Amino acid sequence: MFADELEGNIYSGFSKSNVTELIEKIKLLEGAEAGWATATGMAAIFSTFGALLSQGDHVLACRSVFGSTHNILTKILPSWGIETTFVDFDDTENWDKAVRKNTRLIFVETPTNPGVDIIDLKWLGEFSSAYHLINVVDNCFPIPYLQQPIK
Ligand SMILES: Cc1ncc(COP(=O)(O)O)c(C=O)c1O
């Protein structure tokens, strides 16, 4: 297990059986192939950016995002050389103008907190595929019972 050849719980800081059980259940609800769990929503968002972005990358985000997410995008990531362009959720005809050569990821919330903007996830999936962008959806408000962004 320490050599990463077998799956199993070797150290509770890495994995725990009850967290693995939670992940398996959320994966079923979300229709996901893989997953991981964090103690808070902001830890999930921060670690997603940390895992997927590098210096020089550009992010496209819907304008209305949760305040702490806005802080990460506007205060923390720029100090690491990662820029964000905010786009209006209902101005989808102009989203392609915001895409740059170094755009790597699209981040949206839907419905947004607190604006309650609704983003068309089918359209977003097609848009991000066309530009080969990673799609990140904060599914906090509807929860996977009501909305499955991966689908
Ligand atoms: C849309 C959205 N994303 C993220 C968060 C952050 O979640 P947490 O408080 O678990 O860090 C919140 C919290 O209200 C939220 O509304």
Describe this protein's structure.
- It is a single chain.
- The N and C termini lie far apart (33 Å).
- The model has no long low-confidence stretch (mean pLDDT 95).
- Strand 3 (103-109), helix 5 and strand 4 (134-138) form a beta-alpha-beta unit.
- The chain is built from six helices and four strands.
- The chain is of the alpha/beta class.
- The protein is globular, with a radius of gyration of 17 Å.
- It has helices at 17-30, 41-52, 67-76, 95-98, 121-130, 143-146, and strands at 58-62, 83-87, 103-109, 134-138.
- The chain binds pyridoxal-5'-phosphate.
Strand and helix map with partners:
Layout: H1 17-30, H2 41-52, E1 58-62, H3 67-76, E2 83-87, H4 95-98, E3 103-109, H5 121-130, E4 134-138, H6 143-146
Parallel strand pairs: 1-2, 1-3, 3-4
The site of pyridoxal-5'-phosphate has 9 residues, from helix 2.
Gist of the model:
The protein has 151 residues and is of the alpha/beta class. 36% of the residues lie in helices and 15% in strands.
